[in-house]
Design goal:
Number of helices: 24
Shape: elongated
CATH topology of the largest domain: Rossmann fold
Strand order of the largest sheet: 3-4-2-1-5-6
CATH architecture of the largest domain: 3-Layer(aba) Sandwich
CATH superfamily of the largest domain: P-loop containing nucleotide triphosphate hydrolases
Number of domains: 5
CATH class of the largest domain: Alpha Beta
Strand content: 15-25%
Distance between the termini: 83 Å
Radius of gyration: 33 Å
Number of strands: 28
Largest sheet: 6 strands, mixed
Helix content: 40-55%
Length: 776
Amino acid sequence: MTFHDLTPMMRQYHELKTRLPGTLLLFRLGDFYELFYEDAEIAARELEIVLTSREVGKGRRIPMCGVPYHAVMGHVARLVERGHRVALCDQVEDPKRATGLVRREVTRIITPGTVMDESLLPLRGSMYLAALARGEGRWGLAAADLSTGEFLVTEVAGEQWARLHEEITRLEPREILVSAEEMEALRQTLAPAHLTPVEDWRWDPAVARRTLLEHFRVQSLDGFGCADLPAATSAAGVLVQYLQQTQLSPLDHLRGIRTYFLDAYLILDEGTRRHLEILRNQQDGTTRYTLLEVLDRTGTSMGGRLLRGWLGQPPRDIVAINARLDAVDELVRRPALRSDVRGALKSIADLPRLVGRIGHASASPRDLVALRFSLERLPALREVMAEAVSERLRALTTQVEVHRDVAELIGRAIVDDPAPAGREGGIIREGYDPDLDGLRRAAREGKRWIADLESTERTRTGIKSLRVGFNKVFGYYIEVSKPNLKLVPADYIRKQTLTNAERFITAEMKEREAQILGAEERMTEMEARLLGVIRDAVAQHAATIQRTAAALAEWDVLAALAEGAAARGYVRPALTEEAMLRVRAGRHPVVETALPAGAFVPNDLDMDVEDRGILIVTGPNMAGKSVYCRQAALLVIMAQIGSFVPAESAVVGIADRIFARVGATDDTARGRSTFLVEMQETAQILHNATRRSLIILDEVGRGTSTYDGMSIAWAVVEYLHDQIGGRTLFATHFHELTELASLLPRCRRWRPRGRRSGRRSRPLRSPRGRRTRSGP
């Protein structure tokens, strides 16, 4: 069958489909989106819907399946989650006004990394699209969250690929753009991430730089800090090109790039985040019983996302951390200020995502109203925030702009409670546009005449049962029952015959109908146009609203940390550049909340690289060795994000990396035994740890025979002591390892032991000593 043998509709489909290789095309037909050929087979399998067929011309049938238009986004979500790229093809003209075939166009392309629909986004998480570029001896990484406009770039030396890979796992991008030439080489390394190949020529730094200059409308990239980072520039340029190609809409909310350098942050690799259960637990992958759950008392979604980002990437700059601690300290000491700010923030909508949809031209009228209501609350909120005296809180408060002009524009233009999508009309406020008001008057007058027509005609004809009605097929009509047909006047024009009645129109009625329907149609078109103009006007303020949102989000996080500190009796840690960790009466932040009040036995920890760099932690089963070790790591993370910590006092030396190798797990999917996983994770620590690192090792050598395991553990401790020199907590059942304390000058024996007096818990003092057996 040739192209010309196809039906006109299928020819239209083929013309669109040929432009979208590798994309599932959902083609709007009436109330359904339909898929054909191989797309239908894939969708039927993935969505578990019925695969049927459709005739396309000359008796030939092809595979077909479809989903209702009102439920399409749920099905799109399932397809995208499975790594498919989806295009929505919509009818872009009214079928009633079309001459011949209804015109259709692709209106949206949705890929795993470019989801914008609110129902498909994680409420308190980010959804990144990333691009990875290889330069001359460098790797560049760009990542953007299309839903909020966040845009990040970084660059590392070529030999630091492992470090960049860790950063990719931290960001958890839903889709990574890579060079077509590099695709196969990177597929295994970046699994299970979804990779999308991009033509090699697009990665040219000059092409990428030109793309960025044009998009951001700037003369130089110096203001973004990436002008001298060619690999990062390449990645950012390709990412912007990809968004321009797939979104088919403005990107007005992508207003800037944040350049960052990995060395400025505490490194937490994927294994460490997993073992410490910072963001997700190891049982079911949720936030239950995690550090995030304990600390997240934020009142806004944007604050929740920021806190998650802080926990994944704590800073190392002691000045910046102390500025956060000063802010938390003030809010702990001023409960009234904290309460007022937290109460006000709860009424603020998710500004970054509202602005994202506005800049993307996908915002609904309700999005604009939600933005207006939030902006109207900012003047009072800023007055409360202005009472703060700490340097960081004052800086954030000055960053908050109230945007009265934006709120006033939306308030003048859009009604307080518009329809969800705005397609029904009635979204523009009376008095905003004179032409629209004129059309509304014409429609109202016509409807008033129609409403009066029924009583007028009953009086004129004497037909008491006469009624005036309307339907979408025949428009307005006069209905007369059959027994009264003899009373019908001569100027009535028969329109439709029913079983028990006849329907008529009059010439004047037809004129009024044209007046009403014409006015309503033009009203709908005009409201859509005005909505677009208003949306574009608001989008011009995207950058300043985003800055305001960033300040509010940080206020939210700092107030949440203060709320938790006040409620749970946390204290401010003292920070130092020395490689030490001294905690008095410390408590595990997560375990403490899971136990009844007062049930957790506090404990002490005292270590520094000069004298007590390695602690061999021994004790019986269930004595709390693992809890003790993980607690130390979590307290360092809390301190470095600017949080108070659960202790009577704490002195925390800034760490460059935290390593945690805890428990025994295998990796059957990749054919790795428990012992192999353990050895690979341990080797990574030995290769990457520094004198400023905090290392948690729990039961190293347990995955093999007793004496082989003990030999491995012994060698690891010696290497850490002699070659690395960082702070190490080494929990073990091999009590023979305590002999190392007498052989290595910076190694100490540490035996956690809780003491209780009646029902009252006393702080656990960790005495130095050796146990020769595992047991009570």
